[in-house]
């Protein structure tokens, strides 16, 4: 699919019949099995007539080997979400969608779109679209990840055309431990990383890092847009599904 993205489609004929006309928009998300943040952040940021439906992929630790194995479950997740007649599907894992470098994220979106029969987005590509839409050149990045994954993420963003001025990781592998981090942790890590640096934006990486609630405060204090993995993914899937949304941050102000 192109970066402009299609408008909402009804999927297959059988999916349309299943969906009926109940007035709800349905967002499908494919998440790591240990992720405890995507669904609640999406639910809090969307209207009552938008429902979130998830499929899960096996992952306990955020390591190269486990992320690589997890991606094998993605297509099956897309096929199963099609049964719920969702309007669009998101592969909601940042490092899982950039693990194999630029191009893997685009291929992943295409595979999921074929499997689900509706528009699909992948977090790594959604982040790039968000940063591009905000005209970002110089970005500072904070993550919960180990150094090995930070290096892959920085390389991915650099090849995508962004100048990664700094990247700061917490060195955490256990995804359940990442899920215990809260918006105050994100605020403190982002402000420390950005201190004294000239940036066009801050990116808080990881769909299991509870950080969307820190965006307004960070943007007010730092004076630059702040993009989170879940914020970018939610913005992108609502864009391709033609769903109106009002969520924190400059990214949604331009929707």
UniProtKB/TrEMBL annotation:
User: What keywords would UniProt list here?
Assistant: Isomerase
User: Is Iron among the key words of this record?
Assistant: no
A Pfam family cross-referenced in the UniProt record is Amdase
Q: Which InterPro entries match?
A: Iso_Racemase_Enz_sf, MaiA/AMDase
Region (Disordered), start-end ranges:
1-28
Q: Has the keyword Protein biosynthesis been applied to this entry?
A: no
User: Gene3D superfamilies per the record?
Assistant: 3.40.50.12500
GO MF terms here are: isomerase activity
* Superkingdom of origin organism: Archaea
* Protein name from the UniProt record: Maleate cis-trans isomerase
Organism of origin: Halostagnicola larsenii XH-48
